[in-house]
Amino acid sequence: MRQKIFRNMVFLAVLSVLIMAILITFVQYEQFYREMRSAVKNSAVSLSDLVNNQGAGLLNLIQKSPEANRITLVDVDGTVLFDNKSDPAKMENHLDRPEIQAALKNGQGENERLSETISEITYYYAVKLDDGKILRISRTRKSVWATVFSTIPYFVLIIVIILVLAIFLARKLTKNIIDPLNNLNLDDPLSNDHYDEISPLISRIYNQQQEIQSYVSEVREKQEEFNSVVNNMREGLIILNANATIMTVNRSVGEIFDIEPESYIGKKIYTLHRSSALQSVIEKAMKGVSAEEVIEVGKRHYQLFADPVKDGAQLKGIILLILDVTEKKEAESNRREFTANVSHELKTPLTSIRGYAEIIRDGIVKPQDIPEFSDRIYKEASRMLEMVNDIMSLSHLDEGLTEEKFEETDLFSIVTEVAEKLKPVAAKKDIQILTEGETSIISGIPRLVFEIVYNLVDNAIKYNREKGTVRISVKTDRQFVMLRVSDTGIGISKEDQARVFERFYRVDRSHNRDSGGTGLGLSIVKHAAMVHHAKVELSSQINVGTTITVSFPVRQS
């Protein structure tokens, strides 16, 4: 123990002196370096004035000395005309040097780098002369270090003196500290023979030792139980004092707000999330009223419940509970939107059917026009049936109710089948369907894969131009079998691209109505792709066309 304390004291003294010496050395270096740079700049300015007044011939009078600044005169094309350290004829063109470029552009420039001529870190300062040439003065760091190193002997002498004093004082202090304490028995402080100066300390240690052992044991048990419950809660829990300062925060809160929970203990709750909803529930709770609000963090929604904790009429704290209600919110929103869309989409054909039926019932229509009205009723009813079938298909996909099993499926064979089936539809608009690829086996549900291909090609035809082209390709790489459907149609704007896979969303509603679409095709594609763990990517340009790629995972052999 004695040796350890002694060594630590000496070590700290030595470390302190060394750190001080290093810091002083670097401070000196920076000071000398700044002075060197300033001197180089001043020399460059002064010399440039002389050269401007007396001509470049003045440089030939400069004596060459290893300690002197390096002086270089560079022509406007980068040719070195003069150098007091090296032969100009053997020096390369300097036009690409940063300081030369800066001087040509701004009248002056500076840079620091490894000199290719003398292989040392060098500071350069260049000035543009009146005749357009560049006068450059440089100096190496070596000269700065030489100045710094000249002070080292004094530092060494000081360090030696301090070390001698440190060793002497450390030895004496160690003896004074250790001797009275070497034989203390802290497990039973009162049994020690000690000097009077530490008697009060020994008595206090003993009394506090007894109290602490009892208190710590109780607190540890309660704390472990509390932490176990709080940290394993899925809900976020924050306990505040009466001033809205965070006292306890559990792990779930850190995950919700992407923070380190411990770093927020002792801070105001408002630093956690600055929202009016959070501020509102806390203010109500501080007034003794329970409150709840919903906040949005990232793309998720959370329900806040703030309850005051009182001792009689006095507020002691606040308990804030945070519940994730994202799925509930999304389900409610989707349900409302879906119900509204279904009602709207079914209302239009029903209104048409009812109108045509009333006209026929009331005998307003001419007998020769009855077939036409009947045909319209048939088309609207067919469209309703198609929509109902699509809605049922989406509902089954959402709820995972399909009982069909995955099996080896030839994607290119399905592409060929769809192309043949839709060629008559494409022919009405003089659209050409082209297929390319080869047999590509994936693990999938044939019916759903067929719906993916059919909906993509059907959309490509509906939104294409007269005499357009639809290209369907199947390619395979190491990770994916890629189905790509491209058209030369109207395209999709940037704003619409993020929403085209939503139910009932139409890019061109009037066009879609005329073509008989339900607005559910791409939504079915998206959900069927999710069943197959496939990725769907869309690329489109207005008036150029659209390409949709569905990447199926390669079947594992």
The SS-based structural class is alpha+beta
Shape, per Cα inertia axes: flat
Instruction: Count structural domains.
Output: 5
Total number of beta strands: 17
How much of the polypeptide forms β-strand, as a percent range? 15-25%
CATH uppermost class of the largest domain: Alpha Beta
Helix share, percent: 40-55%
Low-confidence parts lasting 5 or more residues at pLDDT below 50?
509-516
Mean pLDDT: 79
Q: Please identify which CATH superfamily of the largest domain we are dealing with.
A: Histidine kinase-like ATPase, C-terminal domain
Spatial arrangement of strands, main beta sheet: 2-1-5-4-3
Give keywords:
557 residues, alpha+beta, Beta-Lactamase, five-stranded antiparallel sheet, 14 helices, 21% strand
Q: Mind explaining what this structure looks like?
A:
The chain has helices at 2-54, 98-106, 141-149, 152-181, 199-231, 251-257, 276-286, 326-361, 370-399, 411-427, 446-462, 494-497, 509-515, 521-531, and strands at residues 70-74, 80-83, 108-114, 121-128, 134-140, 236-241, 246-249, 291-297, 300-311, 314-324, 407-410, 432-436, 441-444, 469-476, 480-487, 535-541, 545-553. The protein has 557 residues and is of the alpha+beta class. The protein has 5 domains: 2-149, Beta-Lactamase (2-Layer Sandwich), CATH 3.30.450.20; 189-224, no CATH class; 235-324, Beta-Lactamase (2-Layer Sandwich); 335-396, Helix Hairpins (Orthogonal Bundle); 403-553, Histidine kinase-like ATPase, C-terminal domain (Heat Shock Protein 90, 2-Layer Sandwich), CATH 3.30.565. A 5-stranded antiparallel beta sheet has the order 2-1-5-4-3, with helices on both faces. It has a 5-stranded antiparallel beta sheet with strand order 7-6-10-9-8, with helices on both faces. A 5-stranded mixed beta sheet has the order 12-14-15-17-16, covered by helices on one side. A hairpin with a 2-residue loop joins strand 9 (300-311) and strand 10. Helix 1 runs antiparallel to helix 4. Mean pLDDT is 79; it is low at 509-516.
